[in-house]
C-alpha cells in the first residue's frame, strides 16, 4: 500500500520498520504532518526492496534525500534478518550524514495499530513458534500508549502466569494483535478466564509506521553502535558472556572480540 501527497518539502523525518514480513516506511514534514506512507509484504526480500521503497516514497512526497534530518527505526524484536536490515540502513544513513536517529519498539508499533479506549490493554504478539512469542503488555492511557511490561521473547504459558496475570484483573479489556493467534488466544482464555479478550489479525496487525508518532522513541547517542533488540541473547552474546562472565553484555567489547 502506498499513500502519499505531493507537497513542497522543507525538512522531513522518516520512519521505518522491517521486523516482520511487512516493510513499512513513513515520511512526515517538519510540522509532523504525514506526507506519505508505504507498507508492503516484502516476505524475505527486505534487503533488496528497502532502499528502492524509501527512494520511491521520498520522490512521491517531493522530498529530497538531503532534506531528511531525522530517522526513526523499529529495532525489534522480530525477525533476526529483517530487524538487522532496517537497523543497518538507519544507523549507516544517520552516522554518515550526522542525522538524528531514534529507536522505537517494533512491538509498540504493532500495539499502536489496535484502536482501543483509554484504560484498555493491548498485547502485540509475534509468533516465535512452539507456543513462544515476542510480546509485551501495553495500555492505552490519557498520556498515550504505555508499556506495562518489557518487550521480551517468552514461552507463552510462562508469560501468562508470570507477567499477564500480575497486571490483568478480572473484567479487564484486552486486544491481542498479530498473526496466527488462535493457539495463543486459547491459552490466554484458559489462564485468564475472567479477562475479556478480542483478537486482531490480517494486514492491519503488522508494525506499520503510519502511527509511529504515537510510540515512545529514544534518541540514539552513537548511531554506529545501535543494535537490534531480539528479546533474548544472540548466540554471539551467549558465547561472549560464557567467556567473559558478568550479568550483561558490553557490546563495544563484543564487537572488538569478533573483529
Automatic annotation (TrEMBL):
One Gene Ontology biological process: tRNA threonylcarbamoyladenosine modification
Segments forming a coiled coil: none
Domain of life: Bacteria
Gcp-like domain span: 42-190
SUPFAM superfamilies: Actin-like ATPase domain (SSF53067)
Pfam families with a match to the protein in the record: TsaD
Protein's recorded name: Universal bacterial protein YeaZ
Organism the protein comes from: Abiotrophia defectiva ATCC 49176
Amino acid at each position: 500500500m502506498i499513500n502519499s501527497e505531493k507537497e513542497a518539502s522543507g525538512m522531513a523525518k522518516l520512519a521505518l520498520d522491517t521486523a516482520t514480513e511487512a516493510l513499512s516506511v513513513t515520511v512526515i514534514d517538519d510540522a509532523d504532518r504525514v506526507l506519505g506512507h508505504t507498507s508492503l509484504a516484502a516476505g524475505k526480500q527486505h534487503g533488496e526492496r528497502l532502499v528502492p521503497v524509501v527512494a520511491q516514497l521520498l520522490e512521491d512526497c517531493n522530498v529530497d534525500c538531503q532534506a531528511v534530518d531525522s530517522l526513526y527505526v523499529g529495532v525489534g524484536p522480530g525477525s533476526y534478518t529483517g530487524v538487522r536490515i532496517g537497523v543497518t540502513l538507519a544507523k549507516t544513513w544517520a552516522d554518515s550524514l550526522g542525522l538524528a536517529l531514534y529507536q522505537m519498539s517494533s512491538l509498540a508499533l504493532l500495539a499502536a495499530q489496535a484502536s482501543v479506549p483509554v484504560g484498555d490493554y493491548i498485547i502485540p504478539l509475534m509468533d516465535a513458534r512452539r507456543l513462544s512469542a515476542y510480546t509485551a503488555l501495553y495500555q492505552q492511557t490519557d498520556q498515550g500508549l504505555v508499556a506495562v511490561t518489557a518487550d521480551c521473547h517468552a514461552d507463552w504459558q510462562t508469560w501468562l502466569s508470570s507477567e499477564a496475570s500480575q497486571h490483568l484483573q478480572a473484567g479487564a479489556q484486552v486486544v491481542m494483535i498479530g498473526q496466527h493467534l488462535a493457539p495463543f488466544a486459547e491459552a490466554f482464555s484458559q489462564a485468564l478466564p475472567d479477562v475479556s479478550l478480542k483478537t486482531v489479525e490480517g494486514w492491519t496487525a503488522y508494525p506499520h509506521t503510519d502511527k509511529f508518532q504515537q510510540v515512545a522513541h529514544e534518541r540514539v547517542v552513537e548511531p554506529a553502535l545501535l543494535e537490534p533488540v531480539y528479546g533474548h541473547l544472540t548466540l554471539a552474546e551467549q558465547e561472549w558472556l560464557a567467556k567473559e562472565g558478568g550479568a550483561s553484555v558490553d557490546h563495544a567489547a563484543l564487537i572488538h572480540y569478533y573483529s
